[in-house]
Amino acid sequence: MFRSIALRWLASFIPAPVTVRWQERARSCLGALLGIAFTGGTMFLLLGPTANIPLLVAPMGASAVLLFAVPASPLAQPWSIVGGNLVSATIGVTCAYAIGEPVLAAALAVALSICGMFALRCVHPPSGAVALTAVLGGPAIHALGYRFVLEPIAIQSAALLVAAIAYHAATGHRYPHSGRQARVAVTPTNAANPTRDSFTRADLDAVLKRRSEMLDIDPDDLESLLRETQLQAFSRSFNELTCEDIMSRHVVSISADTHTTAAWDLLKRNNVKALPVTDTDRNLIGIVTRADLADRRGVDKPAPFTRYLEGWLRGDGLRTPTVGNVMTTEVCTIRTNAPITDLVPIFATHGHHHIPVLDASGHVAGMITQVDLIAGLYRQTGDTLRQAA
């Protein structure tokens, strides 16, 4: 018993595998290189080579690790580095002045800095080193007094932050990081009314509150990860049926030069709400719905003079506009061999109601609606229950 506990305890010291791709690792290393170089260069230009102020302080290296290697961390956000470093520098200088014993002053400076960062919501681990530097930095640092807060800490923190923002923007990375954007991207439209197997943001907040400890991940990011995990588990359970199995194979398509009145008649005659628009090679170039035709043309009633005037201003003259004038060209599609679970985020997040299904050649092979998806899920659930029985 004791041996197994000891082995588990020792195993906790083994580092977890790093799943970061090598491209991201290289991007982080290059960012830190440029960020530190920019920070030191900024200090050199502002203060000159003969200044008694260090061009770089050691905590900036630790800050660079956070800003360039883990920019999504709450500990690496702009307010964390600026607020945390300034608070810790101020506390460190104060402790150095007030307490003659260096070790006691250093310990108290770090402890008070943590308290201050928690209070101001700017926890930044390298800021603890800033407090230590203010106490143990030697005569050159002590001679600066509270000027140490501005020069070098404030200037170097701002320079490193500017470098991080510019570098992440140039390399297509989101920084400052806002978890709300990722949350919106994967949160279903009915997340406020969850099923028994789902969860709400209130559930997540309650669990985080019970833990009563700080986690190095934004709650919005955590919610997004959990919802993506739900979709992955859902996909694993319902990955036997493909879109080809549930799609409507009888698809009526039209060309872009079809008149809107003819398209409207075709929609009503086939009792459908959307028609794929294809070219002469049967490649999908758009989709037109009843809403497109009704909003732009008013085809179900005589067109008044104002509608003709709008058409003339659009360049249509007094002619009836064609489908190409009103169709949606950015069409969300799916392949015939895709599992039906791939449809869930499309319908739930993007608000689509009709998804064209393309075959291996890129031609329209069918159409899937929300009703088709529900029927497919019901069918798969029934098969699963029968197998379990």
List keywords for this structure.
single chain; 389 residues; CBS-domain; 2 domains; three-stranded mixed β-sheet; 18 helices; transmembrane helix; membrane; CBS_dom
Describe the model:
With 389 residues, this protein is mainly alpha-helical. The longest helix has 26 residues. The protein is elongated, with a radius of gyration of 31 Å. It folds into 2 domains: 154 residues, no CATH class; 133 residues, CBS-domain (Roll), CATH 3.10.580.10. The strands form 2 sheets. Strands 3-4-5 form a 3-stranded mixed beta sheet. Strands 1-2 form a two-stranded antiparallel ribbon. Strand 3, helix 17 and strand 4 form a beta-alpha-beta unit. The chain has 18 helices and 5 strands. This is CBS domain-containing membrane protein. Pfam families: CBS, TM_HPP. Keywords: CBS domain, Membrane, Transmembrane, Transmembrane helix. InterPro entries: CBS_dom, CBS_dom_sf, HPP, TM_HPP. It comes from Paraburkholderia fungorum.
What does this entry show, briefly?
This protein has 389 residues and is mostly helical.
Query: How are strands sequenced across the largest beta sheet?
Result: 3-4-5
User: What structural class is derived from the secondary structure elements?
Assistant: mainly alpha
What is the number of beta strands? Answer: 5
Order of helices and strands: HHHHHHHHHHHHHEEHHHEHEEH
Determine the N-to-C terminus distance.
39 Å
Oligomer: single chain
Largest sheet: 3 strands, mixed
Pfam families: CBS (PF00571), TM_HPP (PF04982)
Protein name: CBS domain-containing membrane protein
Keywords: CBS domain, Membrane, Transmembrane, Transmembrane helix
Organism: Paraburkholderia fungorum
